[in-house]
Amino acid sequence: MSAEHTSERPVVHARDITMAYGDIDVLHGVDLDIHRGEVFALLGPNGAGKTTTVEILEGFRRRSAGEVSVLGTDPERGDDAWRARIGLVLQSWRDHGRWRVGELLRHFATYYPDPRDPAELLALVGLTDQADRQVARLSGGQRRRLDVALGIVGRPELLFLDEPTTGFDPEARYEFHALVERLARDEGVTILLTTHDLVEAERLADRIAMLVGGRIRACGTPAELARRAAARAEVRWTSDDGTARRERTADPSQLVWDLHRHAPGPIADLEVRRPTLEDTYLHMVNLAADGTDMGPEPDEDEDEDEDGETRAA
Ligand SMILES: Nc1ncnc2c1ncn2[C@@H]1O[C@H](COP(=O)(O)OP(=O)(O)OP(=O)(O)O)[C@@H](O)[C@H]1O
After folding, report:
1. Which atom of ligand 1 is nearest to the CA of 196?
2. For residue 231, what pLDDT is reported?
3. What DSSP line would sit under 300-312, residue for residue?
4. Ligand 1 pocket, 44 CB below 6 A?
5. Where is this region: Disordered (predicted)?
6. Atom number, ligand 1, closest to the C-alpha of residue 48
7. Which of 15, 40, 92, 195 is the most buried (most CB within 10 A)?
8. What is the reported pLDDT for 157?
């Protein structure tokens, strides 16, 4: 990566993005800062505004208002040189069915000043054996691997991954996760991932933002988010009379200690279940569905504005 790209300025910087389709408001003031080499996941239920947000950052959609800088440029004014620094793995399959896999990759490589070697890239995504196969004859998971290869052939500084592992078998998913980690860790690629797979987000993301109803409700590391949402640990055990018991508590150590003190012997089936990212996610979504406008929850990594809004900084 050249020195001009290594400044501390966030790769993605957005303030107060709003978006309306006709008279329907979809985004209500989204703030984002994503730093170089960070894997950032955007989570949220169907219709939350994830694709809209990402398309605005990619320069495919004009925002209604707000300030956006991606790799130092307003995406609405991004030129070809700017676009060449960005990789896209989109949900929709592009129509290249009659091309052969290797041929298509070699063709795409010609668009970039310093592309990856197509043969190495095929090996990287596990498609070497399919190099001479027509794209239309690939399985769903193999097409998705090709999408990933096309997204990174130009050595992007910023990679957008829109539900990248849909249709992957577990092994392909595992290999893909390792690839994403390598891109971010070894090559300093910044990655914005949208996914409905909370396990994937937890595994890959340095930070996660939860977008619900067009607002960022929470942002932080997976561990920070798991601790939120008033999510308390659950302690499970089987009491002396054989009854299955469960209790939620903010202090599971104390509860386990108390159980031991009062039990005549070992406690059967004792289990402590820590709050998970899923607990927080469901909590956020349910609050929004109830119409409880609790606003975003600030944490130690976030700037709080005068009005109490949280920035994903
Ligand atoms: N071109 C459009 N015209 C009008 N409304 C749109 C358009 N695109 C999206 N919407 C609406 O904007 C809202 C947000 O859509 P968006 O696709 O950004 O959500 P999402 O979070 O990506 O959802 P999903 O998880 O289902 O992909 C939805 O209510 C959707 O119906």
Report:
1. 25
2. 62
3. TTS-B-TT--B-B
4. yes
5. 289-313
6. 21
7. 40
8. 96
Q: Ligand 1, atom 25: nearest CA belongs to which residue? A: 46
Cβ-Cβ contacts under 8 Å for 134 (sequence gap 6 or more): 97, 98, 99, 100, 101
Find where tokens 């008033």 sit.
Answer: 230
Nearest CA to ligand 1 atom 31: 47
Q: Which of 52, 162, 217, 285 to mutate to test the pocket of ligand 1 (most atoms within 8 A of CB)?
A: 52
CB of 145 shorter than 6 A to ligand 1: no
What pLDDT does residue 303 have?
38
Closest residue to atom 28 of ligand 1, CA basis: 47
| Rounded mean pLDDT for each run of 10 residues along the chain, 313 residues in total | 56 97 95 96 94 95 97 95 90 73 93 92 92 90 87 95 84 86 90 92 94 93 77 85 89 91 89 83 78 49 37 50
Burial of 52 (0-12, 13-18, 19+ CB in 10 A): buried
CA distances from 66 to 49, 131, 218, 250, 261 (A): 15, 44, 20, 39, 58
In a 10 Å sphere around its CB, with 0-12 CB exposed, 13-18 middle and 19+ buried, how is residue 240 labelled?
A: exposed
DSSP result, 60-74:
SS--SEEEEEETTB-
Residues 101 and 133: beta-carbon distance below 8 Å: yes
Determine the Cα–Cα distance for residues 296 and 27; give it in Å rounded to an integer: 14
Distances (CA, A) of 166 to 40, 61, 94, 162, 173: 18, 24, 16, 9, 9
Enumerate the β-bridge partners of residue 197.
none
Nearest to residue 223, comparing CAs of 200, 204, 207?
Answer: 207
| pLDDT tens per residue, range 17-37 | 999 999 999 999 999 999 999
- C-alpha of residue 43 to centroid of ligand 1, in Å: 14
Give the residue from 117, 85, 109 showing the smallest Cα distance to 1: 85
Q: Is 255 close to ligand 1, i.e. is its CB under 6 Å away?
A: no
The token duo for 143 is: 């097409």
